[in-house]
């Protein structure tokens, strides 16, 4: 527990103070209301939080978590299947290699046509980003398990369930958490873009609407909210990894 507290507090405090210092310096150098001082933006954040900001924050968080759950439910089983068996890998991997490098934001108009302008199109857009990253990480994690370990477990008479529980699952977990961190960062950026279209709630909408209204403190308050959402999700992943993969610490 002591090591975990150090992991959370010291790096977090250092990062926060560094960003605030650079932000303050930039605000003084620019000397324009386009970049308000950190104190002004933070004050605006706490003023807006109980009135309207919390709705935008919860809406964005709901979309992000729903996309994350859907991506895990689809990508993890497919990744394990393709890692263990050759035929599914030959069928799915070529499709993944073609679709994965494409910028998924280009599909937003198509998703909006087929799935509407509500939450569904935005969630599916984020799923299309996270699912490939998670799939490849899980598949590669399974493939990197030495075949001799499978033979050893079979010789001990362990069932396929026991092999998955004690060998496959622990092997893919570290790669899965790393893939989640990478894909979440890209997904949050994409969500910001998607929330600028056909919606009235979401951090992306709040930020761009404040920008169009030349309300820069409100705009930066939205950026702070977006940063906090990403920070909480990343720390949540760190916490789960600490519990599930103590051997990596």
UniProtKB/TrEMBL annotation:
GO terms for cellular component: plasma membrane. It holds the Pfam family BPD_transp_1. PROSITE patterns: ABC_TM1. Keywords: Cell membrane, Membrane, Transmembrane, Transmembrane helix, Transport. Its main location: membrane. The chain crosses the membrane at residues 65-85, 182-207, 219-237. GO terms for biological process: transmembrane transport. InterPro entries: MetI-like (IPR000515), MetI-like_sf (IPR035906). It is found in: Cell membrane. Residues 57-241 form the ABC transmembrane type-1 domain. Coiled coil: none annotated. It is a multi-pass membrane protein. Belongs to the binding-protein-dependent transport system permease family. This is ABC transporter permease. It comes from Zhenhengia yiwuensis.
